[in-house]
Design a protein that fits this description.
Order of helices and strands: HEEEEHHH
Distance between the termini: 38 Å
Strand order of the largest sheet: 1-4
Number of helices: 4
Number of strands: 4
Structural class: alpha+beta
Mean pLDDT: 76
Largest sheet: 2 strands, antiparallel
Shape: elongated
Number of domains: 2
């Protein structure tokens, strides 16, 4: 629960920085950049410490679109988890053993689809 609050805090801070004002700040800004428009649907992101359900904030009516750097669009795995796969491969874990090993590491409910596992295997084979 603590990790989820931390990630959610980072997401909200990103929007504060993007809009150049705090959540309930009503002061006029010379260069208006948009306003908060709630949150996207909750989605689960697989991390090295387990799956986390997060809500990414939405920003409307702005000249440039808001894109979170913490939870990227359409991303279901963290960068740290993506970096873990090549290390497992180098250590001798066969590609067919990735999914059971990852399920053990990140939890049974982690969003690891067969297509994402194939994508990871292809990335590893390109690096080798």
């Amino acid at each position: 629960m603590r990790r989820k609050r931390l990630i959610q805090g980072f997401l909200d801070s990103e929007v504060d920085e993007f809009l150049q004002r705090l959540k309930y700040d009503k002061t006029e800004v010379d260069n208006f950049t948009g306003y908060r428009n709630g949150y996207h649907k909750k989605r689960e992101v697989a991390t090295a410490v387990g799956g986390l359900k997060v809500r990414v904030p939405r920003v409307s009516d702005n000249s440039e679109p808001f894109q979170s750097q913490v939870v990227k669009k359409y991303k279901r795995r963290s960068e740290g988890l993506d970096n873990l796969f090549p290390r497992l491969f180098v250590e001798g874990l066969a590609t067919r053993d990735f999914e059971p090993a990852l399920r053990f590491l990140v939890g049974e409910n982690a969003p690891l689809s067969p297509s994402s596992m194939r994508e990871i295997e292809q990335k590893i084979q390109r690096r080798v």
